């Protein structure tokens, strides 16, 4: 499978392994490597060539999310590049992620075919947090956080789609009230959320995400579920019936 490092190497016309294989086991300190229109990029010095390339692709992802929501961030996210997912997880576990501001973490072993979608997904989280009061960042329901991000990514993972079909086919699709109360597994909630935001844009049209985001910004300390319900125009049992009918027709 094509990886991000191979894609970068092709763009730079250098051997595919030269960016990463020379990296020491203990990475040197991260420092600013590139500044793009809406991002600062930080990484160890041996990844400088990758920083500019990935920064440009992050900018494309930014414009995609921004245009959907009709919103620009009030700050510059820090794009942090790691050699591998293991390096990233080590930084998360030891709380040694560079910088002290909102960030997007990316690993250079990400398959190239997934990079742009991953950037859109991660930036969706950043935009959502920008609309909410800081105290609400840890209270966002999984179905909203992951559902919005996957909807904006614009693709269904095969396993997620199979899970959704199973829930609908078996009649075990949870109601919105159970999702909101956290009475289902997180993965089921994320799949529910992806489908729910697909449903929102069907009902509210191309401006659906913008209207949802405006509802969030109008009450940043409020419940994101309330913003969704206000946008979709259904609540309670009416939503559950209409949503189930939509999924049965779609699947």
Q: Specify the number of helices.
A: 11
Radius of gyration: 20 Å
Q: Which percent range fits the helix content?
A: 55-70%
Number of extended strands:
4
Largest beta-sheet details: 4 strands, mixed
Mind sketching the topology for me?
Elements: H1 4-12, E1 31-35, E2 40-43, H2 48-69, E3 78-82, H3 85-94, E4 103-107, H4 112-131, H5 142-153, H6 158-169, H7 176-180, H8 186-204, H9 208-218, H10 224-232, H11 236-250
Parallel strand pairs: 2-3, 3-4
Antiparallel strand pairs: 1-2
Helix pairs in contact: 1-2, 2-4, 4-5, 5-8, 6-8, 9-10
Describe this structure in words.
The structure is a single chain. This protein has 251 residues and is an alpha/beta fold. The chain folds into two domains: 4-115, no CATH class; 136-250, no CATH class. Helix content is 57%, strand content 8%. It has helices at residues 4-12, 48-69, 85-94, 112-131, 142-153, 158-169, 176-180, 186-204, 208-218, 224-232, 236-250; strands at 31-35, 40-43, 78-82, 103-107. The protein has a four-stranded mixed β-sheet. Helix 4 (112-131) packs across helix 5. The two termini are 30 Å apart.
């Amino acid at each position: 499978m094509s990886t991000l490092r191979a894609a970068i190497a092709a763009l730079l016309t250098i051997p595919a392994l030269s960016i990463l294989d020379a990296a020491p086991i203990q990475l040197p300190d991260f420092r600013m490597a590139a500044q793009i229109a809406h991002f600062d990029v930080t990484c160890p010095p041996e990844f400088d060539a990758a920083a500019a390339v990935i920064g440009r692709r992050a900018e494309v992802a930014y414009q995609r999310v921004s245009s959907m929501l009709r919103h620009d961030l009030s700050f510059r996210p820090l794009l942090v590049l790691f050699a591998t997912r293991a390096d990233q997880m080590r930084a998360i576990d030891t709380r040694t992620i560079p910088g002290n501001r909102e960030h997007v973490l990316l690993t250079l072993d990400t398959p190239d075919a997934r990079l742009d979608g991953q950037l859109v997904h991660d930036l969706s989280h950043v935009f959502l947090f920008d609309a909410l009061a800081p105290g609400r960042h840890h209270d966002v329901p999984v179905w909203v956080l992951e559902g919005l991000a996957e909807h904006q990514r614009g693709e269904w993972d095969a396993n997620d789609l199979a899970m959704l079909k199973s829930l609908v086919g078996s009649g075990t699709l949870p109601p919105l009230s159970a999702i909101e109360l956290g009475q289902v597994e997180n993965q089921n909630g994320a799949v529910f959320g992806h489908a729910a935001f697909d449903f929102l844009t069907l009902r509210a049209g191309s401006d659906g995400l913008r209207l949802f985001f405006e509802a969030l910004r109008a009450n940043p300390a409020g419940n994101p579920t309330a913003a969704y319900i206000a946008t979709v125009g259904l609540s309670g049992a009416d939503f559950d019936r209409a949503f189930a009918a939509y999924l049965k027709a779609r699947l």
